Amino acid sequence: MNSDIITKYFPNITTHQKVQIESLYSLYDEWNKNINVISRKDFSNLYIHHVLHSLSIQKLLAFKSGTKILDIGTGGGFPGIPLAILNPDSKFHLIDSIGKKIKVVKEVSSALNLSNVSAEHIRADEHKGTYDFIVSRAVTAMPEFLKWTHGKIRKKEQNAFPNGVLYLKGGDLREELSSIGQKVDVYEISRWFEEDFFKEKKIVHIY
User: How many CB atoms lie within 10 A of CB 13?
Assistant: First the structure.
């Protein structure tokens, strides 16, 4: 599996960003032998199921310079690391409650020279800090996730979308979202990517 799928949808990335994205396969392949951050059965789909899925957020919103983003439950670094590659002037803080996954995040970020990425082994409800956006890939049910984000969204805004949560999730979300007392917009990822994998996948913007 090669990274051409990324340049197909993001033709304007720089040569340096292309090299960083191409490097993801060998880096995760090596780390995945020791620490299972991506299902071994799914590893051949790294670029579609993990990298491109993460970058759907980029299709919705290109972060302005200086934007601060928190990635909760990042696992091996998704969506944070692909987004950090395409947004070198934004700051990404990736957290997870599993220490060995954060070790992978730190090592991959270091290998790619991603100076805009920091990582921390901590539970989301224990982390202190405020951000423009909080991103995540379906780590838990939405109401529970929103408890973790309480008090972490900055009030001052600088992007085209209101500050808030950008949550990647699939399936029918109507029941899950019905109890949320905040503004919610749902975007079908299939509007940008034609692969079957994205048919049920969505970005949920909560603000």
Answer: 18
Tokens matching residue 177: 């979202």
Sequence-ordered alpha helix ranges (H) in 48-122: 53-60, 80-86, 99-111
- The number of domains in the chain is 1
Q: Are strands 184-188 and 133-137 parallel, antiparallel or unpaired?
A: unpaired
122-158 pLDDT, tens per residue? 999 999 999 999 999 988 888 899 999 999 999 999 9
- The CATH number of whichever domain residue 21 belongs to comes to 3.40.50.150
Q: What angle do CA 110, 111, 114 make, to 5 degrees?
A: 50
CA distance readout (Å), 17 to 3, 86, 191: 11, 7, 24
Strands 201-206 and 184-188: antiparallel
Q: 143: cis peptide before it, omega within 30°?
A: no
Residue with tokens 């002037």: 89
Query: Residue 206: phi, psi to the nearest 5?
Result: -115, 130
Q: What is the pLDDT of residue 1?
A: 61
Whole-number Cα distances in Å, 83 to 142, 174, 196: 22, 27, 22
Q: Which two tokens stand for residue 92?
A: 């990404």
Domain span including residue 110: 4-206
